[in-house]
Amino acid sequence: MDAINTTIELTEAERIDRLRLIRSDNVGPRTFRSLMNHFGSARLALERLPELARRGGAARAGRICNEEDARTELAACKRFEVSLLAPGEAGYPPRLATLDDAPPLLGVRGTTDSLMRPMIAIVGSRNASGAGLKFSGQLARNLGEAGFVIVSGLARGIDQAAHRAGIASGTVAVLAGGHDRIYPPEHEELLAAIIAAEGAAISEMPLGHEPRARDFPRRNRLISGASLGVVVVEAAHRSGSLITARMAAEQGREVFAVPGSPLDPRAAGTNDLIKQGATLVTEASDVIHALEPIMERPLRLPLGEGDSDPLPSDPQGDERARIVNLLGPTPILLDDLIRMSDTSPSIVRTVLLELELAGRLERHGGGLVSLI
Amino acid sequence: MDAINTTIELTEAERIDRLRLIRSDNVGPRTFRSLMNHFGSARLALERLPELARRGGAARAGRICNEEDARTELAACKRFEVSLLAPGEAGYPPRLATLDDAPPLLGVRGTTDSLMRPMIAIVGSRNASGAGLKFSGQLARNLGEAGFVIVSGLARGIDQAAHRAGIASGTVAVLAGGHDRIYPPEHEELLAAIIAAEGAAISEMPLGHEPRARDFPRRNRLISGASLGVVVVEAAHRSGSLITARMAAEQGREVFAVPGSPLDPRAAGTNDLIKQGATLVTEASDVIHALEPIMERPLRLPLGEGDSDPLPSDPQGDERARIVNLLGPTPILLDDLIRMSDTSPSIVRTVLLELELAGRLERHGGGLVSLI
After folding, report:
1. Which of B33, B65, B146, B301 has the smallest C-beta neighbourhood within 10 Å, fewest atoms?
2. Count helices and strands in chain A by DSSP H and E runs
3. B262 with A259: Cβ contact below 8 A
4. d(Cα A183, Cα A173) in Å, to the nearest integer?
5. What does the pLDDT average to over A87-106?
6. Distance from CA of A56 to the nearest CA of B (A)
């Protein structure tokens, strides 16, 4: 199935159901996908949620988002000119839709056209040097002229320099909070300029959500996930941009880094990335040449609805206890768990889903799971 | 045959003969090796030189260095405390001896012990930045502490910074001119400090030879050839240090480069080297880790005396004309020439040697030859 050519459009009722599901307790993007795979529709999943959580050993029933709250959120989004889009809908960045943990509903503000074009992320330190800011601007301008939409995080420093230079050709800001909670606040004007120039802003968080520290790494996966690759311009050791680079690598995106003097601490992170295999960038053509072959490949959605068993298998006898027993605080590969459990993959997945909805399971990406 | 373990010592007569041979017209390091391979001794080669050149079509007889001139040079070297050493003798850098075009006699001044230790070259622009000079010093100091002798070209900028920081642990200056023609002249003092601290200087040029522009690239092959690898610190596009890096790669030496900002023209060359596969260096351990596996491998001399046919085959009938006819101004691979000539390799080599001694053949390295 090719995500790019299969443009779907949700009905109002289905959008409400999906919004209720993703806004319910213990349902993240991965659990959402498991539930959709199992039940085939958000409506059926919502109906079965309390029972599954109880079987997973939930101490108390998790909150399920009711229809009224979902309708209220949707109405507020409309007033704020934010569309809540599902993967596969026009305006949902096609590459973002290919992620295992793609947001089930993405808040999109601005021109959706910009979100359907090839994107490249430019990120870097907030405390950037003059040379770093200048280079980011040059690179964003040249990549924009070559047809790429510039993606970044609207932060101070490198992010804003890349956005500003990308305004003319189209740029997308990825937010860590709700669309009405811009961080840093002084960049509201920059965001307005981005939107006015046929750019866009995206967020998976509800309106009113104030961004907290832990929301930024989570947001960073959207920056890399929506893009063909990530260019890191100036990053000290252990900086946030390196998290974006790591996520990009995990997502199979290209990682690019701009070199700097070994005596410049702001280049320590980017030089390290190059040592680890990132492509060295001194000009836009370095990025373009590396991405050309990738752009020619068709996109693939992860296993979608209907590709898995449509209904959950009911664990029999001691199967559930046996699977829970194999789990612990140390992450284990799902594949190993299935082999060791001596039951069917579908039963293991069902038990994991129950544990997840009971708030007892953590998914780590790369197919790793652990008990909380 | 392991060059490191086979330490030879020439007799005085053999050293005089070899000096005469390498100081004769149209005899470079490669021709010298061919002649030694063919005739087994410098004495026999000297005797046959006029006849070979005549057969190669020399318009007039090339000058052959006479014994008196050779003795005079050797005596001057002694007064200047310069030893003329052959590959395999103690004090001749073992890795340098493995080159196809290793100097048949190398002028060595200073402490020969330093020339037998593992070497690393540090080179870069004469017009270096403060950061570049500082980094070169740090790197040379740390590599020196790790047991490496620092090799460089005694130039202004990066070279002198590396030499200065390498004095404490041992450093070797590779000269483009004779030992009594130091360039730049203001570095005579630096060279004296290097020698006084158990370092050394090497040159393949006779005393009194004033270095010309074309001597520097030729000298650069000795910098890389004597070393396990070459670190390039700051180099603009098309700078001399890049020639050293290219020679290092051709010689199978490791190439290292120090990154810099894309906006710094002095980093353009080094960033390019990294794009082409050079190892990025921000600290000494980057160099050390890359060299460790190489240092464990035994050294191999190129095919030495006695490995080839001891006497030249005499070309018969039209063989010589046929081979000359296959040659032209466009370089051709020796192997291709042998195949196309339809004669024995030994006959082709003999004809090439004759042409070389007649001043009509150019050898390009990589087994390529052309008519001049």
Report:
1. B146
2. 15, 12
3. yes
4. 11
5. 95
6. 51
Distance of residue A260 Cα from the nearest chain B Cα, in angstroms:
4
pLDDT by residue (tens digit) across A252-276?
999 999 999 999 999 999 999 999 9
CB contact set of A286 (below 8 Å; sequence gap of 6+): A256, A279, A280, B275
> Could you give the strand order of the β-sheet that contains B106-110, starting from the edge strand earlier in sequence?
B82-85, B106-110, B200-203, B171-174, B149-152, B119-124, B229-233, B254-257, B279-280
> Which pLDDT tens digit goes with each residue over A17-66?
999 999 999 999 999 998 998 899 999 999 999 988 888 888 777 899 99
Half-sphere exposure at residue A13, Cβ-oriented, CA atoms within 13 angstroms? 3
B256–A contact, CB cutoff 8 A: no
Report the greatest alpha carbon distance in chain A: 66
**Terminal C-alpha separation, chain B:** 35
Q: Does B263 touch chain A (CB under 8 A)?
A: yes
Tell me if A10 sits within 8 A of A57, measured CB to CB.
no
Show Cβ contacts of residue B38 under 8 Å, excluding neighbours closer than 6 positions. B45, B308, B309, B310, B311, B312, B349, B350, B353
**Paired tokens of A263:** 């005596």
**Beta partners for residue B369, in sequence order:** B332, B363
With an 8 Å Cβ cutoff, is A271 touching chain B? yes
Query: CA-to-CA distance for B52 and B78, rounded, in angstroms?
Result: 33
Q: What's the pLDDT tens digit per position in A171-181?
A: 999 999 999 99
Query: Is residue B147 helix, strand or coil?
Result: coil
Label residue A83 by pLDDT band (50, 70, 90): very high
A45 in Cβ contact with A39 (< 8 Å):
yes
- Chain A interface test: which of B125, B264, B280, B288 (most A C-beta within 10 Å): B280
User: For tokens 């050519």, what's the residue?
Assistant: A5
B281 touches chain A (CB under 8 A): yes
B200 near B108, Cβ under 8 Å?
A: yes
Burial letters for B318-356: b for 16+ Cβ neighbours within 10 Å, e otherwise?
A: ebbebbbeebeeebbebeebbeebebebbbbbbbbbbbb
The rounded distance, in Å, linking the Cα atoms of B324 and B332 is: 12
Q: Is A276 within 8 Å of chain B by CB? A: no
CA dist., res. B320 & res. B361, Å (int): 14
Using alpha carbons, select from B37, B35, B34, B20 the residue that is nearest to residue B307. Answer: B37
Assign 3-class secondary structure to B220-289. Answer: HHHHHHHCCEEEEECCCCCCHHHHHHHHHHHCCCEEEECCCCCCCHHHHHHHHHHHCCCEECCCHHHHHH
The answer to whether residue B283 neighbours chain A at the CB level (below 8 Å) is: yes
Cα dihedral B38, B39, B41, B44 sign: negative
Backbone φ and ψ for B235, nearest 5 degrees, come out as -155, 130
Q: How many CB pairs under 8 A join A and B?
A: 63
- A261 vs B286: CB contact, 8 Å cut-off? no
- Please tell me the distance in Å from A120's CA to the nearest CA on chain B: 19
One-letter amino acid identity for A321? A
The reply to whether A301 touches chain B by the CB within 8 Å rule is no
Tokens of B248: 């290092």
Task: Give contacts of B282 with chain A, Cβ < 8 Å.
Answer: 262, 268, 271, 275
In chain A, residues with a C-beta closer than 8 Å to the C-beta of B277 are none
pLDDT at A2: 36
Using the Cβ of A283 and the Cβ atoms of chain B, whether some distance falls under 8 Å is answered with yes
Query: B122-156 b/e with 16+ CB inside 10 Å = b?
Result: bbbbbebbebbbbbbbbbbbbbbeeebbbbbbbbe
CA distance B47 to B13: 15
Is the Cα dihedral A139, A145, A150, A155 positive or negative? positive
CB contact under 8 A, A274 and B259: yes
